[in-house]
Amino acid sequence: MRLWMYKIIAVVSLLLAFAGVLLPGLPATEFVILSAWASAKGSPTIYRFLMSKPFFRDMIFNWQNGKIISRRNKWLSTLSISVCFGILMIHNTPLWIVLSASGGMLIALCVIWRRPESIEQVQNKPALPEQK
């Protein structure tokens, strides 16, 4: 039963990732990472598929080795979020939706841009001071 749940999560999140490439506002990266996690636990076939594609493999490898988000992906995320914000502003969207969506987008941008961009940044990160 558990394996089927992981397989379902992997397939659905992979489909959402593909949709996220085409639809602004729907994140692709997060769904690829979720699909990799679920497929590693429940479907070696899907996991091998993901790791055989350089785009997915690099994204998954970066996340597994320090939660790294490449500069290119940061800029693509920023562009996608900007397009979504523009769509909200062009349409006659209720203020509460604009404010809540903008708040979520701002939080997402802060999280994305605070992540390291390379393994070197993760390795050179200063250790936490020892507590006395």
Automatic annotation (TrEMBL):
It comes from Vibrio palustris. Pfam families: DUF454. It comes from the Bacteria. Keywords: Membrane, Transmembrane, Transmembrane helix. InterPro entries: DUF454. This is Inner membrane protein YbaN. The chain crosses the membrane at residues 96-113. GO terms for cellular component: plasma membrane.
